[in-house]
Amino acid sequence: MILPVLVMLGLIVVGMPVAFALGVGALGSLLTEPSLPLTLVPQRMFTALDSWPIMAVPLFMLAGGLMDKGGMSRRIVEFASACFSFLRGSLGMVTVLASMVFAGISGSSTADTAAVGSIMLPAMREKGYDMRFAAALQAASGAIGPVIPPSILMIVIGYVTGTSVAQLFLAGVVPGVLIGLGLMVVAYRQALKEGPGFDAPVPFDTGKVLSTGMRALPAMGLPFLIVLGILGGIFTATEAAAAAVVYGLIVGIFLYREIGWRDLPSIALEAAERSSVVLFIAATAMLFAWLVAVHQVPQLLGSLLQEHISSRTLFLVFLNLALLLIGMFLESFSAVMVFMPILFPLALDFGIDPLHFGILATVNLAIGYITPPYGATLFVACGISEQTVRSVSGRVVPILIAMLAVLFIVTYLPGTVLWLPRMAAP
After folding, report:
1. What pLDDT shows up at residue 118?
2. pLDDT tens digits, residue range 356-383?
3. Which residues contact 324 (CB under 8 A, 6 or more apart)?
4. Can you list the alpha helix ranges (DSSP code H) found in 173-331?
5. Contact 26, 11 (CB under 8 A)
6. Class of residue 307 by CB neighbours under 10 A (exposed 0-12, middle 13-18, buried 19+)
7. Whether the predicted pLDDT of 231 surpasses 70
């Protein structure tokens, strides 16, 4: 099994897309073992996609596209601006809050960053913000997307580990809010450093808050629909995704009237393209993961770790370091498909709750969205702000400290993650 892994890693290093590298590595392993027929390749890839939970991925992609094109992000930004305008550094806080709300609509970090960043980054430039800091803050705000439900990354983690996606959604609420609050503190401190006249507060306008809130109310209804529907046992995560598509159609076409019937084919095509990337990675990665399980790699690695790591606390340190490193170099969906089948059984052996493990993986990989060399949301924010990744990377440090502080809380105080799912459990 070592040779296929080395082949896969070598292909990734030379620039082959991860999905193809996984497939070639798995195929190479089958070719070296005559006892395993090549017909397993299409069989396992088909089985990987023949899943009810994985159907939520294209549905949430489509719902996010409808919400974005339907004017949701702009109304959310207007409402958040009205709410925070009385605070110094309000634009930075609005960036965070708007991204948190939009995360509950799109479920995608890059979509969140692009939708909110295209509005907020030009506004921050006009206010005199250092665009390197603005891009770093927007990238981190977008990285909250996988943590706050609905989360496409959580759907994939639940699919790979067999954990309830609905429970993962609920477990992500508190960590997502904590990360958002931490980023707001960073934005406020940055405004104080810039001087008393920087992004100065304006008097609170109740009328403006109410008017923008009424316009944004339909946009903010979807996260509540999903969470309350799951809490009430009305629908599963996949059914919630279908409900989100219907909701997006109604709001975009009949309430906001910013998309028409002629826009639907292009929105659906864009969602299909984005979904195909995730689903193809899922197909090849599950083939690779099956080979990993056949060769008993988790058991071998577990025995090795138990010889050198004696406590649950030390294993959590190892787990976080491993996931942070993986998130720096691999796209999150690929990382989940490749490494979760190995790390998840180890976590169970050390007595870690499956929900706790799922949120740890989500938060760690979310941090990976802002850490070079991969940094998906970092690239998007830099593209919108016309900054280089190198120049923005230095401004990520205080933001990274805030996110790591939340990771520490989530790691060693699992009750912050588990109390809401336990409260909702029948």
Report:
1. 80
2. 999 999 999 999 889 876 677 888 888 8
3. 364, 367, 368, 371
4. 173-194, 206-231, 237-249, 264-294, 297-308, 312-329
5. no
6. exposed
7. no
Q: Tokens 């089958």 appear where? A: 30
Which structure tokens are listed for 406? 């939340």
DSSP state of 396: G
Cα-to-chain-centroid distance, residue 337: 15
**Which tokens in the block code for residue 107?**
């479920």
Tell me how far apart the terminal alpha carbons of the chain are, to the nearest angstrom.
Answer: 43
With beta carbons less than 8 A apart as the criterion, state whether 367 and 361 touch: no
Q: Collect all residues with Cβ–Cβ distance below 8 Å to 252 and sequence separation of at least 6.
A: 66, 67, 69, 70, 71, 72, 258, 259
Residue pair 382/135 in contact (Cβ under 8 Å)? The answer is: yes
Calpha distance 13→21 (Å, rounded): 10
Q: Which two tokens stand for residue 128?
A: 């005199």
Judged by DSSP in three states, 202 sits in coil
Place of tokens 């503190």: 185
Residue 155 CB neighbour total at 10 angstroms: 28
CA 43 to chain centre: 29
pLDDT above 90: percentage of residues in the chain: 18
For 172-226, the pLDDT digits (tens) are 999 999 999 999 999 998 888 887 777 777 888 888 889 988 988 887 777 777 7
pLDDT at 159 over 80: yes
Contacts of 235 (CB under 8 A, 6+ apart): 229, 243
CB 215 within 8 A of CB 182: no
The label of the residue with tokens 């930075």 reads: 92
Cα 70 to the center of its chain, rounded Å: 22
